[in-house]
Design goal:
Layout lengths: L1 E10 L4 E11 L4 E5 L6 H9 L6 E6 L9 E4 L13 H11 L4 H14 L15 H14 L4 E5 L7 H18 L2 E6 L2 H7 L2 E5 L6 E6 L14 H14 L2
Parallel strand pairs: 3-7, 3-8, 5-6, 6-7
Antiparallel strand pairs: 1-2, 1-4, 8-9
């Protein structure tokens, strides 16, 4: 579904090479984790896939076409960058559909359905400041899914949450993915998270980032937190960390 061919990115002033000849093909419905050191260019790669940043060299195709913003749902590391404090939860979820001129009755039905699936429906009329961190991030996920993008991109979405809430959110994301089978790309700096969620983990080098290796994750689905203590999980995580250099 997604073809990433020979992607190189160089920022100017000062000249900084961030990505160096990244090649990756992702199948429809696949869950991919991108794992690598801080500052290596993981987020830049997401922005290029989203069509927000142009590569210096190479190309990205989604279903044989250049990416458009309408192709992807983007979930930021910091939910405050995506959610509007002056809007209620349900109005935040409806926002992307409003910008696409989707009928008011239809967008309300879609938003309510997503909020029910994520157990947020009873909070639909609350404002963002009235929510916990996990609830805010679930609202951001609902908004990204509401206009039915083909690809879901997540930039370290749970890194600001405490351990127990982050694990709960990972399970919620997996449940949503099992229902929707959206092609999903997650940037993570947490090896446990990267392995637990993904079909494949793409390990990047220091900047300029190259692909050091790809680890297939063969844990059965559906997954649960008990798998964090399984032999198969430890072996897979160790493969990722060896590639990473730890």
């Amino acid at each position: 579904m997604i073809q990433i061919d020979n992607i190189t990115k160089v920022f100017q002033d000062p000249k900084t090479e961030v990505l160096d000849r990244i090649n990756l093909h992702i199948k429809e419905g696949e869950f991919i984790s991108i794992f690598g050191p801080n500052g290596c260019g993981k987020t830049t790669l997401l922005y290029i896939i989203a069509g927000v940043v142009a590569p210096t060299q190479g190309s990205v195709l989604i279903n044989d076409s250049h990416p458009r913003k309408s192709d992807v749902g983007f979930i930021f590391q910091n939910y405050s960058e995506a959610l509007f404090p002056w809007r209620s939860v349900i109005k935040n979820v409806e926002f992307g559909m409003e910008t696409r001129n989707i009928d008011k009755r239809k967008r309300r039905k879609i938003a309510e359905s997503l909020l029910k699936k994520t157990n947020l429906f009873k909070y639909k009329d609350r404002y963002i400041y009235q929510l916990s961190g996990g609830m805010k991030q679930l609202t951001a996920i609902c908004r990204a899914l509401a206009y039915n993008p083909g690809v879901l991109l997540l930039d370290e979405p749970f890194s600001s949450l405490d351990y127990s809430i982050a694990r709960k959110m990972e399970m919620e994301l997996l449940r949503i993915w099992e229902e929707t089978k959206k092609t999903t790309i997650l940037v993570s700096h947490n090896a446990d998270e990267a392995v637990l969620l993904a079909d494949r983990v793409i390990v990047l080098s220091e900047r300029p980032a190259r692909i050091k290796g790809i680890v297939d994750v063969e844990l059965p689905r559906p997954r649960n937190l008990d798998m964090l203590f399984s032999r198969e999980f430890f072996e897979t995580r160790n493969k990722v960390l060896r590639l990473f250099g730890r």
